[in-house]
From TrEMBL:
Pfam families: LRR_5 (PF13306). It comes from Tenebrio molitor. This is Uncharacterized protein. Residues 1-16 form the signal peptide. Keywords: Leucine-rich repeat, Repeat, Signal. InterPro entries: Leu-rich_rpt_typical-subtyp, LRR_5, LRR_dom_sf, SLRP. Transmembrane segments: none annotated.
Length: 306
């Protein structure tokens, strides 16, 4: 059987095509790694592998084809020097559990790159992403988790993830988000009862009054280590239910009466460590203990100072 492993790569100033690629593959039975050098005879174990690591540098990813890999579950294209991914790159890719493109130099995800791609977990962390097309993730119906940590994104788009009915977890930490816009999460809770959103370590100062309009149940909602000067009780009061609302390390000096009344009874745990709370606000939280549903997590320094 002839192995067809195709990575079509657009190189500077010319088109370059490699019929085969340098890979690291893992034995399905033992998990032992093996090197495969382009154009070498194909070992049977490579055809049966569940995990492939691409071990080749190229600037523009044009097309990925892995035929005859019926057992492949994880494809890792990490630290390959990629600057750009062309639309339809993954159109012939069989369903995967994990697709990873971390530690590259990708600045934009265009519409047509991942549409209809059947991937359960997509990891795009440690790139230079500044732009994601509004429809870039449409119709990824197998997608459950997407990781976009350590990038350069400034805007969240509520149009992302249309018809991604199984999506349960989005992590977009260590970026430059400044605002959570209206209807930010309108495409969630299709086939999932609970959604987890991680927006830690951004620059969020503003939450639109309709950011949480018509949302479902959150497991984790992490807004920690941002620049929130206050949390509006009416805005956050639109939350249906939150297991853990993390507001650690923001710029909060108090929690409003509206927030205490509208939010703390919809939440099991609220973390507010590392905020410069006023003593009277901390005392009010202590007075409310036992009368609110949420457990409020404070740092020792906050309690000692008051």
């Amino acid at each position: 059987m002839k192995l067809v492993v195709g990575l079509l790569v657009l190189v500077e100033l010319s088109w370059g095509i490699t019929n085969n690629a340098d890979l690291i593959w893992y034995d399905r039975e033992t998990g032992e790694p093996h090197n495969y050098v382009a154009r070498e005879p194909t070992p049977e174990g490579l055809l049966q592998t569940e995990k492939i690591v691409v071990n080749q540098k190229f600037s523009i990813l044009w097309e990925v084809k892995f035929a005859f890999f019926d057992n492949l579950e994880a494809l890792m294209i990490d630290d390959c020097g990629i600057n750009e991914i062309k639309p339809n790159t993954f159109r012939d890719l069989k369903p995967l559990t994990n697709l990873s493109l971390t530690f590259n130099h990708i600045r934009e995800i265009k519409e047509g790159v991942f549409n209809f791609v059947q991937v359960k977990n997509l990891n795009f962390s440690h790139n230079r992403l500044a732009i994601i097309g509004a429809r870039a993730f449409d119709n990824m119906q197998a997608l459950e988790t997407i990781t976009l940590d350590f990038n350069e994104l400034k805007n969240w788009n509520g149009d992302w993830f249309f018809n991604c009915s199984r999506l349960a977890t989005v992590s977009l930490t260590h970026n430059f988000l400044e605002e959570i816009p209206a209807n930010a999460f309108k495409n969630f809770w299709k086939d999932r009862d609970t959604v987890n959103i991680y927006l830690s370590y951004n620059k969020i100062e503003t939450v639109d009054r309709d950011a949480f309009a018509e949302v479902g149940k959150f497991g984790d909602l992490f807004l920690d280590w941002n620049d929130l000067p206050r949390v509006d009780g009416h805005i956050f009061g639109k939350l249906t239910s939150v297991e853990h609302l993390n507001l650690n390390g923001d710029s909060l000096r108090c929690l409003s009466e509206e927030f205490i009344g509208n939010v703390l009874n919809k939440t099991n745990l609220v973390s507010v460590q590392g905020n410069p709370f006023k003593c009277e606000c901390l005392k009010e939280l202590r007075n409310r203990e036992g009368r609110i549903r949420a457990r409020v997590q404070l740092s020792q320094e906050q309690t000692v100072d008051c």
